[in-house]
Design goal:
The protein is α/β, with parallel strands linked by helices. It has 17 helices and 13 strands. The structure holds uracil (URA). Pfam families: Glycos_trans_3N, Glycos_transf_3, PYNP_C.
Length: 434
């Protein structure tokens, strides 16, 4: 078998066999197939797609590139959540401690920034000392000790996703239903959680731009998960506007801390309660979703959720003083530029993707696989959709250190706002629950 022939077949819309998919993943993972051939294959998948069988073969091959964790000793209690990628989407940082503080065991294998979207691992690594590169042994210890572990793909668990994920990020091969489905589901199946809560993002700031594609992705993930015996709860949520009031790694950690302390309520906290409620319900710790959401809310008001976050950070080697004084522990940008509105009116649109690109230009994202992220860089969103703004008012503030692309970033951010004379119609954050 040759990688060339497999790429050729996929490019011409052929359906690959189990053996062909396994050959490609196995040999890419062990270094026999170079990045350029895998990139060509990924691009072919972006253009021609995959059948359900091929998606299953790809997911299985990625799972089999490493070990599968057995968490059956925890019974029904294991539940995780995963988003298909958004902007300002720090829900994992909030939902994981809420659910874990309510007794859910959360084995979370998360991702780094991908395309224009942010990644939970990068956000957590902005906390000095926080380790996401755990071994299998560490993973079990974190779960035993804190009831949650938030780690990345490793040499032992889904190593193929680790390599392919980084390659997709640098080769514009992210927006593909089969690739997103197999990437997410391989991690989620290998990590061993019994239940999964999926947040499929939909809109201009998501990889799925419309409801039809988002629902197709959701159904592919559910079908794949069911083949592996997973219990799945799926939300399709809006990602036209960024969630919360900031974009960027350290900024989003600080915001998550404020939400977990009960000091801040916004669309991000609202969605985090929905997702952690679904995790609590799926784990069998509440009789209904509504009761589970009440529990989630109480974990915040009682202080248990923020204490759980402190414990997770400490267990994974992070400086847990970040909980008491985020400003003195998290990295801070030395420079800033304000984006002001040129006219008065209602903010009718804020293009999430453009704002994410502006944040990346400030240093918060990667352009190449090897790039280092500036954890302190990003954007503070002073205003959101529906707010009325007066001419000259500050819409957002870009934070950066050494980036030489801030002029471009400011221009992109400025153009991300649409100001109208009439207030926009209210949009639903949760579009569907499947
Ligand atoms: N999250 C992942 O883990 N993989 C993707 O492809 C997209 C979002």
């Amino acid at each position: 078998m040759r990688a060339y022939d497999i790429i050729y077949k996929k490019r011409n819309n052929g359906a690959l066999s189990k053996e062909e998919v396994e050959f490609l993943v196995f040999n890419y993972n062990n270094g026999e197939i170079p990045d350029y051939q895998m990139s060509a294959f990924l691009m072919a998948v972006c253009f021609t797609g995959m059948t359900d069988d091929e998606i299953f073969y790809l997911t299985s091959a990625m799972i089999n590139s490493g070990d599968v964790i057995d968490l059956s000793s925890y019974g029904k209690l294991t539940a995780d959540k995963h988003s298909t990628g958004g902007v300002g989407d720090g829900t994992s940082l909030i939902a994981a401690p809420i659910a874990a503080s309510a007794g859910v065991i959360v084995p979370m294998m998360a991702g780094r920034s991908l395309g224009h979207t942010g990644g939970t691992l990068d956000k957590l690594e902005s906390i000095p000392g926080f380790r996401t590169d755990a071994s299998k042994k560490d993973f079990f210890e974190y779960l035993d000790f804190a009831g949650a572990a938030i780690i990345g793909q490793t040499q032992e668990i889904v190593p193929a996703d680790k390599k392919i994920y980084a390659l997709r990020d640098a080769t514009a091969t992210v927006e593909s239903i089969p690739l997103i489905c197999s990437s997410i589901m391989s991690k989620k199946i290998a990590e061993g959680a019994k239940s999964l809560v999926l947040d499929v993002k939909c809109g201009g700031g998501a990889f799925m731009k419309n409801l039809k594609d988002a629902k197709t992705l959701a159904s592919k993930m559910v079908e794949t998960g069911k083949k592996f015996g997973k219990n799945i709860f799926t939300f399709v949520t809006d990602m036209n506007t960024p969630l919360g009031s900031c974009i960027g790694n350290a900024l989003e950690v600080k915001q998550a801390i404020e939400i977990l302390k009960g000091n801040l309520r916004n669309d991000l906290s609202e969605l985090s309660i929905e997702l952690s409620g679904a995790m609590i319900f799926s784990a069998g710790l509440a009789l209904s979703v509504e009761a589970a959401k009440d529990i989630a809310q109480k974990q915040i008001s009682s202080g248990k959720a923020i204490e759980k976050f402190r414990q997770i950070i400490k267990t994974q080697g992070g400086n847990s003083k970040v909980i008491d004084s985020p400003d003195s522990v998290l990295p801070k940008a030395s420079r800033s530029v304000k984006i002001k509105t040129a006219k008065s009116g209602f903010i009718s649109q804020m293009f999430a993707r453009d704002l994410a690109i502006a944040s990346a230009l400030c240093g918060a994202g990667r352009e190449k696989k090897e790039d280092k992220i500036d954890y302190s860089a990003g954007i503070i969103l002073h205003k959101k959709v529906s707010d009325f703004v007066k001419e000259g008012e500050v819409l957002a503030e870009l934070l950066y250190n050494n980036s030489d692309k801030t002029e471009e970033a400011a221009q992109v951010a400025q153009n991300a706002y649409v100001i109208s004379d009439v207030a926009p119609a209210k949009h639903n954050l949760i579009k569907e629950v499947l």
